[in-house]
Automatic annotation (TrEMBL):
Transmembrane segments: none annotated. Coiled coil: none annotated. It comes from the Bacteria. The chain holds residues 146 to 423 of 423 of the full protein. This is PAS/PAC and GAF sensor-containing diguanylate cyclase/phosphodiesterase. Residues 24-278 form the EAL domain.
Length: 278
């Protein structure tokens, strides 16, 4: 009886797996089509100087504008794009689009805005990534100082000297480098020493508890990350600010820059322009 039941479960499980992989295969096919048909759009979320309340930059965040399913969040398709290698093409589209948009804003008079673009580690592993980015900047005529690359801490798992050298090459070209989701990744402080980092972005996870009680472990960690950043001469950005209390706390503890729904949600370019005008 036990055996039989086990067998039944197995076949249910097997059926589920087949169904699941069929879904993934369908999604993969659709993702390939999306690359061809340019079904992606960029939203932009501003970064605000917490002291002056000025916009210092924005972050480009991709969405898939699926013809039937509507807007799909990056969390749903970026992992698949990474697995299938499609991330390289998608990432190049993001870089070009974001640089073009920033150049347009600069030409319109919003000339201090720095554009941040998220990059997967697999993109950085491409041997021609440095020349790709350099030629995109030349093509779009954006000053490299106004481009920042955000990478997550998993970059610390990229140990080969060659990959690290690419980051130094980009840096030499004038591009800035931010560590995204700082504090939650496969962290080792060692790479802060080894990589040419300009900015730390404190993960929303720590910001969530800030401002509720001054002595929560999270707020103490936020203080520690801010002072770490300051002592290494890095810019520090708080991600995912959702309340006035969080903003007050961060300002009081000398966090330079903030980002979050409380300040502004990610918006399409034309809607963000209305926000710039305020
Ligand atoms: P991330 O780079 O850490 O971006 C922050 C995420 O938090 C964004 O989600 C943003 O919309 C969201 N967010 C901002 N403020 C708040 C807030 O106050 N509350 C809450 N709950 N969320 C907030 P999104 O746009 O869904 O992007 C998710 C992740 O997908 C990004 O995390 C990034 O890792 C990845 N991603 C987005 N665009 C790209 C891209 O062009 N290329 C690559 N490789 N990854 C991307
Ligand atoms: Mg980011
Ligand atoms: Mg982040
Ligand atoms: Mg994230």
């Amino acid at each position: 009886w036990v055996k039989e039941n086990g067998k039944d479960n197995y076949s249910i499980y097997e059926g589920y797996m087949i169904e699941k992989s069929a879904n993934i295969m369908e999604l993969e096919l659709e993702l390939r089509k999306a690359v061809e048909n340019q079904e992606f759009i960029l939203y932009y979320q501003p970064k605000i100087d917490l002291n002056t309340e000025e916009i210092v930059g924005c972050e480009a965040l991709i969405r898939w504008d699926h013809p039937r399913r509507g807007i799909i969040s990056p969390e749903k398709f970026i992992p698949l794009a990474e697995e299938t290698g499609l991330i390289n093409q998608i990432g190049e589209w993001v870089l070009r689009e974001a640089c073009k948009q920033n150049k347009k804003w600069h030409d319109t008079g919003w000339s201090d805005i720095q554009m941040a673009v998220n990059m997967s580690v697999s993109q950085l592993k491409q041997s021609n990534i440095v020349t790709t980015i350099e030629s995109l900047l030349i093509e779009t005529q954006l000053d490299p100082r106004f481009l920042e690359i955000e990478i997550t801490e998993s970059i610390s798992m990229v140990t080969e000297e060659e990959k690290i050298k690419q980051l130094f090459d980009l840096k030499e070209f004038g591009i800035s480098l931010a560590i995204d989701d700082f504090g939650t990744g496969y962290s080792s402080l060692k790479y802060l020493n080894k990589l040419p980092v300009d900015t730390l972005k404190i993960d929303k996870y720590f910001i969530d508890e800030v401002g509720m009680s001054t002595y929560s472990t999270s707020s103490l960690m936020v203080n520690a990350i801010i002072s770490l950043a300051k002592s290494l001469n890095l810019k520090v950005v708080a991600e995912g600010i959702e309340t006035q209390e969080q903003m007050k706390y961060l300002k009081k503890h000398q966090c330079d820059i903030g980002q979050g729904y409380f300040l502004c949600k990610p918006l399409p370019a034309d809607e963000l322009e209305k926000f710039f005008k305020r």
